[in-house]
């Protein structure tokens, strides 16, 4: 029997129930196909992470990406309680993008009169965090109720036109591929997702007490307030490589935004930044970049990445470079859309691609 096609292997990752029994049985018994299946799984996970572009609250993508880092980096003596804390932390919609402020900053156009638009980002700015910072962050899912609407799955589509039809966002066209990047990309999309958070002073006080801390008195009106965070939709063009990590990803997403049921942005932000467990340096960075309510923080894990400033055709951008110099990315926000170019490339190469997009 011939080996299944690359498309069939990818479908085993995304939609295994849609693959014929004969193909599944062949892959299970074939070392060559099993190896190719592992590559397909890695590319799918990397593409999903690229769609998240590290600035939007995407709980599942953030969990997949960072849990892999945990598995690789856990030091001896780090036991199950710490891993459970990470797991709870990374599933919190408040933490997945940049910590507590992301939950309380930003909203798509308010759809009803009882929603107050409190944040619409116009630019991105880096904030530096350490792994210890992330471990120290409070578990905000214990501070209220979280509900979500929308499909978080990343799915393949046939071409750029299909991606635009599915999301309403045009896939940026690459003018010239960097050296070593060849062939045609695959196209992936993710739908808009809306997350609702209802703050509960009673639950928050109980969580703080259990952790041995004291909750600051919430400002009038915050108890019971609801916040609506809107993410996406998102599109990406992905050029694969033989190493399992995409050679190039060009992704674009609607900037995450938040509505409030009445609490002003400054009130929510200032209170959240006093919560027990939030590292002082991180709180100060978040307070600085969110001063005017129009800057979306871009998390930079200091053990793994460095950041620098650049511009993409006149728009301010942030360049991220891995400390081992194997990967780079550039991220910017313009016209309500966040665009990211990333891959197994240098900073100069991703900037050249970004500036040449059409």
From TrEMBL:
Source species, domain of life: Bacteria
Residue ranges of the TM segments: 94-116
Keyword terms of this UniProt record: Membrane, Transmembrane, Transmembrane helix
Keyword Transmembrane: yes
Protein name: DUF4367 domain-containing protein
Organism: Pseudonocardia humida
Organism placement in taxonomy: Bacteria, Bacillati, Actinomycetota, Actinomycetes, Pseudonocardiales
């Amino acid at each position: 029997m011939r080996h299944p096609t690359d498309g069939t292997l990818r479908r085993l990752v995304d939609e295994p129930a849609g693959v014929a029994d004969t193909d599944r049985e062949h892959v299970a018994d074939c070392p060559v196909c099993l190896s190719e299946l592992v590559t397909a799984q890695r590319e799918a996970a990397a593409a999903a992470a690229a769609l998240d572009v590290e600035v939007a609250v995407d709980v599942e993508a953030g969990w997949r990406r960072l849990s892999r880092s945990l598995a690789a980096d856990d030091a001896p003596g780090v036991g199950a309680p710490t891993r459970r804390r990470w797991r709870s932390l990374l599933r919190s919609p408040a933490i997945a993008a940049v910590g507590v402020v992301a939950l309380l900053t930003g909203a798509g156009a308010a759809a009803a009169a009882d929603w107050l638009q409190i944040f619409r980002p116009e630019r991105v700015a880096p904030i530096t965090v350490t792994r210890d910072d992330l471990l120290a962050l409070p578990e905000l899912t214990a501070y209220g109720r979280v509900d979500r609407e929308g499909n978080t799955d990343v799915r393949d589509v046939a071409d750029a036109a299909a991606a635009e039809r599915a999301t309403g966002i045009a896939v940026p066209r690459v003018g010239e591929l960097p050296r070593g990047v060849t062939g045609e990309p695959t196209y992936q999309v993710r739908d808009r997702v809306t997350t609702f958070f209802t703050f509960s002073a009673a639950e928050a006080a109980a969580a703080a007490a259990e952790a041995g801390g004291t909750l600051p008195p919430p400002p009038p009106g915050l108890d019971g307030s609801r916040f609506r965070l809107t993410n996406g939709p998102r599109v990406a063009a992905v050029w694969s490589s033989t190493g399992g990590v995409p050679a190039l990803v060009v992704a674009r997403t609607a900037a995450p935004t938040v509505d409030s049921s009445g609490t002003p942005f400054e009130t929510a932000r200032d209170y959240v930044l006093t919560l027990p467990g939030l590292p002082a340096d991180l709180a100060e960075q978040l307070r600085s970049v969110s001063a005017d309510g129009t800057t979306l923080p871009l998390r930079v894990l200091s053990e793994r990445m460095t950041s620098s400033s650049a511009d993409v055709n006149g728009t301010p951008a942030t360049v991220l470079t891995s400390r081992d110099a194997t990967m780079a990315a550039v991220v910017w926000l313009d016209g309500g859309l966040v665009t990211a170019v990333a891959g197994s490339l240098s900073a100069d190469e991703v900037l050249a691609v970004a500036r040449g997009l059409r």
